[in-house]
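subagent[fold] <- orchestrator: predict structure for attached chain, return tokens only, no commentary.
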Amino acid sequence: MENRKLSRTAGILDRVLKILQGFAIAGVIVSVIFIPLTLILGEKIIADASHLKLGAVTLKLAGDMSAWLDYPRIKASIVVSLICMAVAAAAVWYCLRVLRSVLRPMIEGSPFTAGISTKIRKLAWTVLIGGGLVEIGSSVSSVLETRAYQLDRLLNMDRISSVSFNWMIHLWFVAAALILFFLSWIFRYGEELQREADETL
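subagent[fold] -> orchestrator:
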């Protein structure tokens, strides 16, 4: 009875993950299409250049933007952001693929089949490497975007003595990878117990 419930739940999850994989593929395709468009069309595609976001505050800028906006930098920032999106979507697609391969034996009612722990470890490495690349890319994109705006010309420098930037990389992917590594250890232990049980029968 428990195996039947597990199998049914795993089957539903597998179908949901398959749909999510489709969205991830679409994300990769859209990002990859927009990279050359940004490089070719240049300033025409930069529609939000007149908006500068500073935390929770968004400044709408007026006048001739070419006087204080570095278009090559803002373009590079958009390209780096699109590359990050493509990498993130590809990593999500691969993680979903691994998760579906983990669910396959569960659909058949056997959660501790040999090799599951290895797949979860692959998942952990993908989250660690993919998350790291995305965070680094996001930081580079933020630096390029902020430096594209000539803040010394935008701000009242009589009131502000200097402008400094503090960049921070979030380590969510490290925590997620550690949890997955721990889960892979639990599954490896379960696989060993399953093997011992099979040997005694």
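orchestrator: received. Logging for downstream: The radius of gyration is 24 Å. Residues 2-41 form the longest helix (40 residues).
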